[in-house]
Amino acid sequence: SGGQFPGTPRLARPGLCSLCSLLFQMHGFFCVISCLLPNRKNNTRVTPSELQPPDSHHLNAAVGWIELGNTAEAKAELARIPASSRKHPDVLETEWRVAAAEKDWASALDTARVLVETDPDNPSGWIHQSYCLHELKRTQEALDLLRPVVEKFSSISTIPYNLACYTCQLGNVEEARKWLGKAIKIRGKNDVKQMALTDPDLRSMWEEIKAL
Q: Is the peptide bond before 9 cis (omega within 30 degrees of 0)?
């Protein structure tokens, strides 16, 4: 499942839309990793300074290798980026993509946590962090960490959507219904409904979702 945050990414910034669609195609991941679909509203965020060559070249090459499904070459390109640039949000995002593509959720979680620490105004880190916890069968932790940032990222439909997934999996259908409603309010019923009806995390709600 996946989509794109508002705005057009710079070349050096891994495209979140391509990330989600790629991971979905490769691994059939459900619940949303990065975001549901382009949101109708915009979140305000200070964009980090761009990486400079040659670091940006290595990063772009790594992204290209990920999109080709070659995580080994992606890692090799990332390894060429010096330690001084390794905590740049674009680099962390790409490292997360590699770990997620390999389903190395423990490593992906470590990277997501660093992304949250270094770029707390980026919703991607918070979403990735909770998604990893969910994949590690730590869904209550995923819920507890993502729920407090709902208002901070009020225009990001992925957050209430993923909270619907987590609460549904924890057996709280009433709360899941509330979060799904919030996602629909942000993104629109048709898009959310289409996504939800292919999402196994929401399987127990499929009948009522069909009736929306």
A: no
